[in-house]
Fold:
Amino acid sequence: MTLTTAEADKILATCLAPWVLELGLVVESLAEDRAVLRLPWSERLAREGGGLSGQALMAAADTATVIAVSAARGGFVPMTTVQQSTSFQRAVTGSDVRIEAVLTKLGRRTAFADITLRDTESGALAARASTVYALLG
Structure:
């Protein structure tokens, strides 16, 4: 049971830490096993040298997983990150980032996802992440 993007936006606004909203994430599309979000470029999120900070990218990947799990479950359920591993491939400067979280396994108590983060202007891979979530509800 997939959510609408409006329902996913409501999850972003009401179920996540307030500082996550500061990232400005936008839900672009949802399917039963995935979520695609966009992280808008912001000087506020850039580090010295002009590249988006790794912390912002990791938070975006983590958040995309929450939305993908919620889409697969038909709504938000309490969950928590158990593990996240991120490999950075290239800096993103002056461009939005497309984040695609694909669920590789969704069980009753755990969820696993692979996430790609791409520079929207060039399409180049900026980072890969994998997450493991404990589903609490």
About this structure: The first strand starts at residue 26 and ends at 31. Residues 99 and 117 are 5 Å apart (CA to CA). The longest helix spans residues 54-73.
